[in-house]
Design goal:
Its EC number is 3.2.1.4. There is one protein chain. By secondary structure, this protein is mainly alpha-helical. It has one domain: Glycosyltransferase. The protein is 48% helix and 3% strand. The protein has a 3-stranded antiparallel β-sheet with strand order 1-2-3. Helix 8 runs parallel beside helix 12 and helix 12 packs antiparallel against helix 13. The two termini are 34 Å apart. The N terminus is likely disordered.
Length: 353
């Protein structure tokens, strides 16, 4: 995916450059081909794929890998010969299909935080620069890249109030730099839940699925709806701990039941927090407010429901915005909202007061 989290915009930079030139494949000083850069940027992501690769996979030297991720042999058992029934049931519950997704950088670890951000930004480009991608003959490949990520997220979020966020042991993996096809390092699985919250990762995963739902809305409505429904459920893990009466009224207007509303409130109130399980490799230095606003923005873009816009306007905070990256999302949300007007108001929505 990226090296130290700094280059995971490689593919999107090429797409943006293409868009800036109105889809014309021109050269700078007669030497640079933006269409070729775009193609190679998307192939870079294809090279990072984990799982059962499709027959038309362009990097022919890559093969299937990580086919047991999340399954029985991926989990370390304690060195004991006797297990209680409750332990066995917990162990069975740990088994999940986590095949697929993307490896990170030159590693064989799958990190949910930068992976979901990469899918979100790729989906953003597929939405806003669709015609340019189509002209370059890369729209189908970009959509396939997005789906490769969202298929994995659907698996990772398959269990209620749980999100699997990492596969692999980064410390041991970094000691053995090998092709994923022949890796023998542990495929340790990490997750967030009520006891181990991870607001940033849950919010970014929600943003990825919400934005991807917009990409597939015209071509695969069933898949688009599935992504959007899951994005809403994942977002329930990470909404704020305190709701105003106006918030409650909006939720009721969206036909949520009293039981699900109470569960949402309790979960957000009691289990909100930063997840540091991916440190020191992907620590969230900016906190989780930017991811919450970023996710709410994409959910509003995908649904047009006022509850998300109200959350954005009421939870906007003052912040220094000097970059857009896997860790800091304010600028991205501001750009998306720059042309979105509040009801009965002609001015755009602001994230910072």
């Amino acid at each position: 995916m990226t090296i130290h989290g700094r280059e995971n915009l490689t593919a999107t930079i090429a797409v943006a450059a293409l868009a800036l030139f109105g889809g014309l494949f021109i050269s700078v000083d007669g030497t640079f081909d933006y269409k070729d850069a775009l193609t190679k940027s998307i192939i870079f992501l294809e090279t990072q794929r984990s799982g059962k690769l499709p027959p038309n996979h362009r990097p022919a030297w890559r093969e299937d890998s990580g086919l047991q991720d999340g399954k029985l042999m991926s989990v370390r058992l304690p060195a004991t010969s006797c297990f209680s029934f409750s332990f066995i049931m917990r162990f069975v519950d740990m088994q999940v299909d986590l095949v697929g997704g993307y490896y990170d950088a030159g590693d064989n670890v799958k990190y949910g935080f930068p992976m979901s951000f990469t899918v979100t930004t790729l989906a953003w480009n597929a939405i806003f620069y669709k015609s340019e991608l189509q002209a370059a003959g890369e729209l189908g490949n970009a959509e396939a890249g997005i789906r490769w990520g969202t298929d994995f997220f659907l698996k990772a979020a398959a269990k209620k109030n749980k999100l699997y966020v990492q596969v692999g042991d980064p410390v041991l993996d970094h000691q053995c730099w090998v092709r994923p096809e022949i890796m023998e390092t542990p495929r340790t699985v990490l997750m967030i839940d009520e006891n181990t919250p991870g607001t940033e990762i849950a919010a970014e995963t929600s943003a990825a699925m919400a934005s991807a739902s917009m990409v597939f809305r015209a071509t695969d409505k069933a898949y688009s709806r599935r992504l959007l429904n899951k994005a809403k459920l994942v977002s329930q893990i990470i909404l704020p701990p305190c709701y105003s009466v106006q918030h409650l009224r909006h939720f009721f207007s969206e036909h949520l039941s009293v039981a699900s509303l109470w569960q949402l409130f309790q979960f957000a109130k009691d289990h909100k927090g930063t997840y540091d399980g991916e440190c020191p490799f992907y620590c969230s230095f900016s906190g989780y407010n930017d991811e919450l606003l970023w996710a709410a923005t994409w959910l509003y873009m995908a649904t047009k429901r006022q509850v998300y816009l109200q959350y954005i306007t009421e939870e906007a905070i003052s912040a220094n915005v000097n970059e857009f990256s896997w860790d800091l999302k304010y600028a991205g949300a501001q750009i998306l909202l720059s042309k979105v007007s509040q009801p009965n108001c002609s001015s755009p929505v602001n994230l910072t007061h």
